[in-house]
């Protein structure tokens, strides 16, 4: 099976030479196509011919008509099949598209495409996800299959849209011609786009078990969390592995249930560890791993492996713990094994400087209480990457000495996750 061509959209803030540098950058990172849209850039803001010399160019008409110079330089020209009138792109360049305003049944979607599409044109159908359920995902897959049957294997792209659409887009991408992805940072062209790096990694390091056409071999893995662009999980676990970055108030319970037929497991990080423990009926206060067991999710907390490693590295008899979420639950559960006393400090209870040894479990997006101060305390940081550096700076600013133990925690828990996912069914 051929992989979808990876499309990155030119951000609206980039013009002229900056646009050319962006195109060169995304090409080096594995992008195949650059999209330029009329709702994001005026005609004079970009040199379409120069961009086309770097990457295949896709120009998309969004409200404002396409400049002739863009059309001339483009590999594909995106015109809305409903609102654009005559589909008059030059021969061989047309990408006929439709963006539905609501979720559609397969029959409703197919009726939209009861129009004459020139031979060889690409077809792109976009829908909001709507209410999350296995049935809803099945409808999108059925629409994709029926459009492929009508127009041909190498012509169809179906995209899901919305704040929790990322894993559904990843599943659909396995049968799409184009995969619209984001470079990263603060801007995405559409809600639900996955990262270019993850799409490239999936193709570069394929799962050792192939995905036969028409058979239900479930290979996908993913990590669920908020603000997880920095996550290293995709770098160490088997591919395909998706960073599913969703809002803190997202319906994560409905999402994992909807994805049960399509994923073999999930890593779970802040802020969903406690919610998914409750949802799966776990006896644990918090979980960080879901494993597919035929028609249900089984939950585990491999953070206990990380907690044990960090407490052993600290080597202290008395340890204070800042935060009381999923990581704290793992620390609490292994305390009897390592023989130390723990003090779990709520935010309102912190009124005097802390000394000795401690563990900071708050995510870096959470502002610590103003009263928090340290008297030379050694404080373990169990995050990693940029968040860990920000937390360490905060500890130092408040009089403490940070111990960077995030990698030790991460590796210990990830080894156990990998073993569990190998036995998923």
From TrEMBL:
Signal peptide: none annotated. Gene3D superfamilies: Leucine Dehydrogenase, chain A, domain 1, NAD(P)-binding Rossmann-like Domain. It comes from the Bacteria. InterPro entries: Aminoacid_DH-like_N_sf (IPR046346), Shikimate_DH_fam (IPR022893). This is Shikimate dehydrogenase.
